[in-house]
Structures are given as structure tokens and as C-alpha cells.
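Postdoc handover notes: sequence design on the structure in folder B. Input C-alpha cells:
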């Protein structure tokens, strides 16, 4: 059984999708710990409601990013985590975590990467005038939102969309493809070959 750790900063709807997938049996894994860098993140509450250990680590208590991430690592090890999921985690991951979890860290991004990396991706796409938006699950590496892509899903932009209605429809798809991608990882069906991720069917 794979032990998963989820890093969050906010409302945690993607965390909820992962929790639901574990509870329904779709994902044969265990969420061993949820870690937030924000004390009042609703994601922490979601975890606790499901009996999952939820930890707030205040970055302000650490003199450097390295020390902060070493504390995260200590907790991950304590919980036997083998895979990290970033789910609305707002900090840029540093070398310490990247090295320790190389090819074992996934992220969900609300745009069709490599278009619109960074913050407010749905609004970036909407303002740009794209006709097709979407979301991406990818491996995390030292680049910002540019690691090898595991799954993507398209969402058509409607004439009457606002950035918010578009973001809401993208979010629905995020909640589908994140559990799908995690399942592929847990079932050991992903092979990273350079920039590409081959999926073993
Ligand atoms: C999602 O849109 C995700 O793609 C992005 O941050 C948002 C987090 O939302 N990385 P939630 O906390 O999972 O509800």
C-alpha cells in the first residue's frame, strides 16, 4: 500500500478528490499525512474530518527554505511517505524536497501546460482569449510548472464564460485527472523518458 503525503495551502478541493478516491477504493493507497504552510487552510480541516493527520508547519519559524523543508522531510519520513502530491501548495518547492522525492512528486496545474504556468492560470488563459483551456498533472522538477506531463484534460471556453465560471469547470476536471494520475503512479504504470511520460496500459 503506497503512503501518500499531500502538501496544501488553501481550500483543499483536490485533496478532497484524492481522499474520496481512496475511500471509494479507486485508489489503492493511504494518505498518511497532510502538511500545510498556512495555519487556517481549510484543507487541514478536511483531512482531520477523515481521520488523517494534518500538520501546520509555519515557514516563519525557520531561518531558511532548506531548514523548513528539512522539517517537512522529517515528518514525511515519520509517516513513511513514498509520494508527495502538491494540491494547491503555494510555495515553490526547493532543492531539499526535490532531491529527496525526485520523480516522486506530482502537481496539478489549472492550465494546459506549457501554456500559462504560474499564478492565476485560468484567468491568464481567459484573458488571453483561448478557446480551449484545461488542466495538467505533471511531475515536479526544478522548473516552475514544467516537469514531465502525466495527464491533461481540455475544457472548452464558452461565449458566456467569465474567468470564474471557466475556473470552476476546469476544477471539475482537475478532480478527475488528479486521482487518475495518482492511480497510474501507484500502479507503477508511469515511465519518465526524457520530457515524456509513457503510460503502460
Ligand atoms: C487548483 O486550481 C490547482 O490546480 C492549483 O491550485 C488550486 C488548488 O485548489 N494548483 P484546491 O486547494 O485543491 O481547492
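Designed sequence:
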Amino acid at each position: 500500500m503506497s503512503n501518500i503525503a499531500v502538501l496544501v495551502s488553501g481550500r483543499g478541493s483536490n485533496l478532497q478528490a484524492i481522499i474520496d478516491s481512496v475511500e471509494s477504493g479507486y485508489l489503492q493507497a493511504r494518505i498518511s499525512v497532510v502538511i500545510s504552510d498556512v495555519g487556517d487552510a481549510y484543507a487541514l480541516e478536511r483531512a482531520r474530518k477523515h481521520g488523517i493527520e494534518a500538520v501546520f508547519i509555519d515557514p516563519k519559524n525557520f531561518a531558511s527554505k532548506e531548514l523548513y523543508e528539512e522539517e517537512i522531510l522529517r515528518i514525511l519520513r515519520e509517516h513513511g511517505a513514498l509520494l508527495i502530491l502538491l494540491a494547491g501548495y503555494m510555495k515553490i518547492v526547493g532543492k531539499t524536497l526535490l532531491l529527496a522525492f525526485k520523480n516522486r512528486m506530482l502537481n496539478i496545474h489549472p492550465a494546459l501546460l506549457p501554456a500559462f504556468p504560474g499564478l492565476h492560470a485560468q484567468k491568464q488563459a481567459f484573458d488571453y482569449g483561448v478557446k480551449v483551456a484545461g488542466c495538467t498533472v505533471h511531475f515536479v522538477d526544478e522548473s516552475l510548472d514544467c516537469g514531465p506531463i502525466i495527464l491533461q484534460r481540455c475544457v472548452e471556453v464558452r461565449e458566456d464564460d467569465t474567468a470564474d465560471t471557466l475556473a470552476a469547470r476546469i476544477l471539475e476536471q482537475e478532480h478527475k485527472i488528479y486521482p487518475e494520475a495518482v492511480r497510474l503512479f501507484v500502479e507503477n504504470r508511469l515511465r519518465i523518458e526524457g520530457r515524456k511520460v509513457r503510460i503502460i496500459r
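Context for whoever picks this up: DSSP finds six helices and nine strands in the chain. Don't rerun without checking with the PI first.
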